[in-house]
UniProtKB/TrEMBL annotation:
Record protein name field: Glycosyltransferase family 1 protein
UniProt source species: Flavobacterium pallidum
A Pfam match: Glycos_transf_1
Residue ranges annotated for the Glycosyl transferase family domain, each copy included: 211-370
Coiled-coil stretches noted in the UniProt entry, renumbered to this chain: none
Glycosyltransferase subfamily 4-like N-terminal domain ranges (all copies): 32-157
Gene Ontology molecular functions: glycosyltransferase activity
Lineage: Bacteria, Pseudomonadati, Bacteroidota, Flavobacteriia, Flavobacteriales
Amino acid sequence: MRMPQNLNPEMKKKLIIGITAEPSVDLLNGQLDYFIKKGYEVYLMAPDAPRVTKFCAEENAPLLPIKIERTISPWKDLKSLFQIIGIFRKIKPDIVNLGTPKVSLVGMMAAKITGVPLRIYTCRGFRFEHEKGKMKSFLIFLEKIIASCSHKVICISNSVKDLGMKEGIFPDEKTVHIAKGSSNGINLTLFDPNAIDREKAAAAKQEYQLEGCFVFGYVGRIVDRKGIKELYHAFDKYYKENDKARLLMIGRPFWDQIADPQLIEDYNNHPGIVMAGMKPQPEVPLYLSLMDVFVLPAWWEGFGNVLIQAAAMGVPIISTKATGCMDAVSDGFNGRLINPYSEGELVNMLRYFYQHQPEIKQMGINGIEWAKNFRPEIIWEGMDEIYSTVK
């Protein structure tokens, strides 16, 4: 596809990056600052919230505040559409790169209406994967709208690309997959096992009574699609065999995405499970260092960034052959993959990892090498190549 050209090539290219919700700034760490230093005029379009404001200050990028709902709300969505059209007409961006579903839908329509020269959709996965019937068809339809308004679709994993093409959402020639994937790479300076404060790690281990235990761990939002039901029941069964096992949960429940609230009560009351709550991103490496095995039995992901974080910390991994997870783990090298939704396979794998500790220790060592494929600069350089198509 021939890209429209900027009429003022001597000026800085204006780049607007858009997200729907405050937590998504974690998917952009370092990226805006990188492109500012490359000579772009960069803006973040996002809700005005404390975390977003702090992020923009750290990245030296101005905020374009928007009001946008995460769920479908026709009247509010129409207001958001007109607001974003106004922003694009005022800023006159050369490039928009929108990720996360809602801002991508409304924002990409606004970008097409206003004739933004290069419109990029960063596809971070598909919500329709755990839906059925009319809802699944509706969500696929919305994805097709986003893709049709875009010039390019950056798929953050090969499995996302394959699924999108299979469902007819976008054609192969419109898609881009950068290196081995991920939306922003992994900060290997932060996720470095040699940088851990051993005194703090020992204190945390004592606080959560993990000394002398074999620790399985989880980091992320506590929601159904991450496989938390399967994880609870598999761990509960294994704990009855081995009461030295522990499950360290880092994250908080998102109640609107949990079908059975009793499940969280079961987590809270289990003698072998530690519910440590949500931790700031800079503290996550410390908690990963407490784990003998990282477990993510997700139904689907866009790309399992946390799996690369665990790998970088030298923690062997159990995950699934689901979209986005299969791309983030080298099966048999730095972890093992099982089928999603399979409580039985997960119990067996928990047992296997405990019984084969020399083997999984080598997997952890392998993971440190594997993670080097996901340096942020690799992803950003790939994006820059795409952005450079606007002259």
